[in-house]
Design brief:
alpha/beta, 44% helix, 5-stranded parallel β-sheet, binds iron/sulfur cluster, single chain, 6-stranded mixed β-sheet
Length: 765
């Protein structure tokens, strides 16, 4: 027994305090007590106590917060938690935070003195942590009826008390220079290493990066691929977009869930495999598809999904699921993916051959401002969909004041139905890097970053190898192509599953190590972008076009396509067609011709540009794909006449509700209202006025939202109201009794009727 004898009891129940004083006083301890958690923290931090004994349920403060504070401020103090019978989960969480022992009410004198004695006999907090896992087992053995939760929590605790946690987290932070701006890399590495970013890991990261835990937590909680809770060693993320569902995603989901014995959102009791849904993973041409950790599994059926799970249970190695690699660079050892490129039509710009370095050497024959003039002459517009002139954007950046500038490549194609950047990244990365390097030359930037969506992590090593090769032959680094003073290099920044990061300012936030929140404009990225530097930001396909313009000339480029939409467009075609895949076609191509080319089966509707684009019916099939008519970032989903168009719209609205960052009310609340009213209409509860309501609300969301996500989120409703009005009109009816059918008067009266025992004489059921 150590000499320590001073104990602080923090509890608001006089009977508990009295019995502590009696029992512990009788055993020779010196006991003081306070009734509130705030006072408990104050006294414990300032006083000379050896042990704090605290109730988990305090009137003014969560007991967990008290534990957390003491662990930070006074790690040497032992803590014993008092729990009620119903607080097993809370006790488990407290132990995870680092308490020394716990007792349950009502406790016997022996129980309390034993717990206190044990806690004080392990004077060092690090040594105490060794006991935590066994304490947790004890807690869990008392937790009745929830073995999945129990196992999951146990795994969390074992992780949290891991001896190596502190050293390993510190090492990861040091690898990134303890730089807060590298937070995405740090938390991704911690997640990969430990299976989650636990509360304790967040504290360690915050300390190392000189920031607050809340900042780390805000990042971890924002991205779908990061988690505070421990996931299984293998995470299966099944894509749940409309194309996957129509391809049999529900049957696949059921098969995986049955085989694992857990529902979606849960981890198997042995802690080995987690099961989740995820948004579009860029594989709509080979749906249903899933990510198994970073490994992509495509063209699933219920049977192949069952086989996959059985195999995984045996070897737990997702890479072994890839038996037959796909075509092209999908078979490269650094990619090793079963993904198929599905290139159906190669055009002359993006999918044509390139000899690395040719475009850069061509650019270096003219001045940086002439490069920008060439891009302007080619009338190149951004391929993301909005179509801002690329040369103008570059000129702003070139003229912006600032010694350092940056070139960012948006490889975060998250629009459901889009996958053409996946193919470019797989087959044409040189062309994209070449375009970025030319941008660096034109605007005077030395820093280039590719923001690669988390779903394409399987391409990362390969892309790094291409960058290394380019450095090796003088196409990146110092004095590129022997041009003295032309220094430019490119790094890869991984995303972690957030659609909004495709919005350029949100992407910049993410690169800066923050939540992917969009920023206010002005200032525009060209003036003040990544870390405040003037920044050019374009997408993968745009940079490819840049390289080709410099290689072949602006006249050659602008002769392809239409007057205001020059060049080609890569389309990712999926849905009800014979030949889903990637098509490089000149701008101006008629939608009808595209549908014929892809083998569309009895097409009744086409979603051009993904959920944020437009739904077009047969009346619009003679329209053309270009900025001034059917603008698209690349997604084209074909639906035949058997599909429920309003069901698809509902699915898209669900997607936007899920993906809204929540910053501004029109987007956060408006989309929920749109979704709900649409759901009423589909359920046969709509009235004719609802159509006007949807239009007005949709336009308000479009007008008042802060960023591109909100400004386009109402499009599924607005464009179907315009192009498929009869679908809505067939479902709405004026109520005969004057009451909306969304309001059920009988249900509303039911409680009152039961309480009073009287029935309404007006509203009889
Ligand atoms: Fe966030 Fe939506 Fe507002 Fe954009 S529009 S800032 S995604 S809430």
């Amino acid at each position: 027994m150590v000499e320590a004898r001073r104990i602080l009891v923090v509890d608001d129940e006089p009977v508990v305090v009295k019995s502590c004083e009696r029992i512990l006083g009788g055993a020779g301890y010196e006991v003081e007590s306070v009734a509130t958690g705030q006072e408990g923290i104050r006294r414990a931090v300032k006083g000379a106590f050896h042990l704090v004994m605290a109730d988990l349920k305090l009137p003014d403060l969560d007991g967990m917060e008290l534990v957390r504070m003491l662990r930070i401020e006074r790690p040497e103090i032992a803590i014993v938690i008092i729990t009620g019978n119903s607080s097993v989960r809370s006790a488990a969480e407290a132990i995870r935070l680092g308490v020394s022992d716990y007792i349950e009410k009502p406790f016997t004198p022996n129980e309390i003195t034993d717990a206190i004695g044990r806690a004080l006999q392990t004077p060092d907090s690090r040594e105490r942590s060794h006991n935590e896992a066994s304490l947790m087992r004890d807690v869990l053995s008392r937790a009745a009826g929830d073995p999945v939760f129990g196992q999951h929590l146990l795994a969390n605790v074992e992780l949290a008390v891991s001896e190596s946690l502190e050293a390993d987290v510190q090492e990861i932070c040091a690898k990134y220079g303890n730089d807060r701006a590298r937070m995405m890399d740090i938390v991704r590495d911690v997640q990969d290493h430990f299976g989650c970013v636990s509360g304790r890991a967040m504290e360690l990261i915050a300390k190392a990066a000189s920031t607050h835990r809340v900042e780390v937590e805000s990042v971890v909680s924002f991205y779908a691929f990061l988690s505070k809770e421990l996931k299984g060693k293998v995470a299966i993320r099944l894509c749940r977009d409309v194309i996957n569902e129509q391809a049999g995603g529900d049957r696949v989901a059921q098969a995986i869930s049955d085989e694992l014995g857990v529902d979606f959102g849960r981890t198997t009791p042995d802690g080995h495999i987690s099961l989740e849904y995820t948004a579009c993973i860029g594989m709509c041409d080979q749906a249903p598809a899933a990510l198994v950790n970073d490994v992509v599994v495509t063209s699933l059926t219920a049977e192949s999904a069952r086989r996959m799970v059985r195999e995984l249970k045996q070897h737990m190695d997702p890479r072994r699921l890839v038996r037959q690699p796909g075509d092209g660079n999908n078979a490269h050892p650094l990619v090793h993916a079963m993904v198929k490129n599905n290139i159906r039509k190669e055009g002359p710009i993006v999918l044509a051959e390139l000899s690395p370095g040719d475009a850069i050497r061509a650019a270096l024959t003219v001045s940086p401002s002439q490069v920008i003039l060439d891009i302007k002459d080619a009338r190149l517009r951004g391929r993301g969909g909005a179509g801002f002139p690329t040369g103008v954007k570059w000129e702003f950046t070139r003229l912006a004041s600032g010694e350092k500038k940056c070139v960012l490549c948006n490889a975060d194609e998250g629009e459901p139905g889009t996958f053409k950047d996946r193919v470019i990244l797989t087959q044409q990365p040189d062309l994209m890097f070449e375009g970025m390097t030319i941008a660096g030359y034109a605007v005077g930037a030395e820093v280039g970053i590719v923001y690669l969506r988390g779903e394409y992590a399987y391409l990362r090593s390969y892309l790094e190898s291409v960058l290394d090769r380019r450095r090796g032959v003088g196409l990146l680094g110092a004095d590129i192509c022997d041009r003295k003073g032309f220094d430019f290099d490119i790094s890869i920044q991984m995303g972690a599953g957030a659609y909004v990061c495709g919005e350029e300012t949100a992407l910049i936030s993410s690169c800066e190590g923050l939540r992917g929140d969009p920023k206010d404009r002005p200032p525009f990225p060209a003036q003040k972008g990544y870390l405040g530097l003037p920044t050019v930001i374009n997408n993968v396909e745009t940079f490819c076009c840049v390289a080709r313009i410099l290689e072949k000339g602006s006249d050659w480029f602008s002769a392809i396509g239409s007057k205001d939409s020059t060049g080609t467009k890569l389309l990712s075609v999926s849905g009800d067609c014979e030949r889903p895949g990637v098509y490089e076609l000149p701008f101006g191509v008629r939608l009808r011709d595209v549908l014929e080319m892809v083998g569309a089966r009895n097409p009744a509707a086409v979603q051009v540009g993904g959920p944020s684009g437009q739904m077009v019916g047969p009346d619009g099939f003679d329209r053309s794909v270009c900025y001034d008519d059917l603008a698209t970032g690349g997604s084209m989903m074909v639906f035949d006449s058997s599909r429920d168009v309003l069901g698809i719209v509902a699915d898209f609205m669900e997607f936007f509700v899920e993906e809204s960052c929540g910053f501004c009310t029109p987007c956060r609340v408006g989309n929920v209202l749109l979704k709900d009213r649409l759901s009423d209409i589909r359920a046969g509860k709509g009235v004719p006025e609802d159509i006007e309501y949807l239009k007005n609300l949709g336009e308000t969301i479009k007008f008042a939202s802060r960023c591109g996500l909100g400004q386009t989120s109402a499009n599924p409703v607005l464009t179907t109201l315009r192009n498929f009005p009869s679908l809505y009109e067939a479902l709405v009816r004026a109520p005969r009794d004057g009451n909306r059918r969304t309001f059920d008067i009988h249900a509303a009266l039911r409680d009152a009727t039961a309480i009073t025992g009287r029935k309404s004489v007006i509203f009889t059921e």
